[in-house]
Amino acid sequence: MKKFLSLLTVAALGATVSVKAVLAEEVLRAVHAFPSFLVYTKTFLSFVDEVNARGKGVVRIQVMGGPEAIKMFEQPNAVRDGVVDMVHTPGSFYGAAVPEIDAMVASTKTAVETRANGGTAMMDAAHQMRFNVKYLAWIDSGIGFNIFTVNEPKFRSSDGVLDLGGVKIRDNPIYTAFLKSLDATTSPMPSTEAYGALEKGVIDAAPWTTIGITDLK
Questions:
Q1: Of 10, 14, 129, 174, whose CB neighbour count within 10 A is largest?
Q2: What is the pLDDT of residues 91-105, one digit of tens each?
Q3: Which CATH architecture has domain 15-139?
Q4: What are the residue ranges spanned by the domains of the chain?
């Protein structure tokens, strides 16, 4: 994602939904990567409500929980292995298995546009071939990737690229290489701790999308 979710570049990120390939299911067990109070999860839960209402008597999605049920980075393998039937997760969480997902990490298109131009079908084919799951949808597309800073950011005079030298920034494995290429001092921590860490001066900056940052208060 230069978009978030693939929440989740990943978050850059654009979040995706994958479902274990099955012929018929009355009940699909689902998990979501992020806590229920985050906007990304709320969008997914709204999707679940609509499916359950329109599919009444045919199909029902049973939400098993979020990272408290299955750790977020373990969820893609859980759907692949049949532990659950559906997962709502950033594509970058399983990018090593489906490298094509990086095309969505850097995409400037929306979910509607990618479905219309054939991109969604191509992504589905890659997921089925490489990961034995069916790619259903890209939720919360079109949200930009940002770095929120406590102080005004600096840019290199030579090329105008962001200079994070001396900046302590919240990190996770998805962002590490990118942030270090900008000379940042990285500090791994759960996303739920990022807002408080900014307020307390534990970190100087945090990557996030254009939506949901205030959910972390």
A1: 14
A2: 878 988 998 988 877
A3: 3-Layer(aba) Sandwich (3.40)
A4: 15-139, 145-216
Give the CA distances from residue 47 to residues 77, 86, 100, 112, in Å, rounded to whole numbers and listed in that order.
Answer: 22, 13, 25, 15
Q: CA dist 16 to 33, 44, 158, 217, Å?
A: 10, 10, 37, 25
Contact (Cβ atoms closer than 8 angstroms) between residue 90 and residue 207: no
Pairing between strand 15-20 and 205-209?
unpaired
Question: Please, which pLDDT band fits residue 4 given cuts at 50, 70 and 90?
Answer: very low
- State the architecture of 145-216 in CATH terms: 3-Layer(aba) Sandwich (3.40)
* Residue 178 φ/ψ, nearest 5 degrees: -65, -50
pLDDT at residue 7 greater than cutoff 70: no
